[in-house]
Amino acid sequence: MRDTQVLPDGSRIRWAEVAGREPVRVYVHGLGAAAAPYFLEAASRPELAGHRSLFVDLLGFGTSDRPTGFGYTMEEHADALATALRAADVRAAQVVAHSMGGTIAAHLAERHPELVAELVLVDSNLDPIEPALRPGSSGIATYTEEDFVRHGWDETLARVGPHWAATMRLAGREALHRSAVHLTRVNTRERLRRLPIPRAYLYPEADGEPIGAAELVASGVRLIAVPDTGHNIMIDNVEGFAREVSGLLMGSQAG
């Protein structure tokens, strides 16, 4: 495991790293998750293996530190991630990011363009979300931070089920709540449309095309439907995910 300090208070981001050839690939997890448990199996398949690969746990999640004085906005997450990537000597990376991680990765590409050469978003949030009592960021955002820390944490873990709870229970409570609240307010769609780099968006085939698909395609975003999967595409259909991501990244390099 690697790590580096990303905040003045000493807080550190940690990541698992696999050696390999350039360009480097950076895998970014979603809300309440961790990078290696969600991505390592797919990234180890022959279609994706062989590149230097970083499985980064965002500040507040997984093995990284959980400072309570951090704001956990998408911009702050992106800046902390940028600090970690620079410490890891990463430039012009192929970034593959799931759910909230995709929102953060889009901010990263906009705010620190030298770090991101290609971007693959995996069923990421495109539009602001109305808080509603259900699993995910919308449900967490129905609580005040005080109520979430006191009892919403336990209620949320019960609501999301054992798989998601396995990594969510590692998150800082303030980190989880603040990240969720900020995520529900962000418009990733417009940021994704205006980025000047190769970018793609994977979504479950059963969900149908995302709203505004034609506008995304017209702006240069490649939309890829993956069959036999739910939100966690890289876990639900490992082979399909690896095949599609490999094709996207190889295709952009060839172009």
Automatic annotation (TrEMBL):
UniProt cross-references to SUPFAM superfamilies, sorted A to Z: alpha/beta-Hydrolases
Lineage: Bacteria, Bacillati, Actinomycetota, Actinomycetes, Streptosporangiales
Domain AB hydrolase-1: 26-129
Highest taxon of the lineage: Bacteria
The species this protein was found in: Streptosporangium brasiliense
Gene3D superfamilies: alpha/beta hydrolase (3.40.50.1820)
InterPro entries attached to this UniProt entry: AB_hydrolase_1, AB_hydrolase_fold, AB_hydrolase_sf
Any Pfam family: Abhydrolase_1
Entry protein name: Pimeloyl-ACP methyl ester carboxylesterase
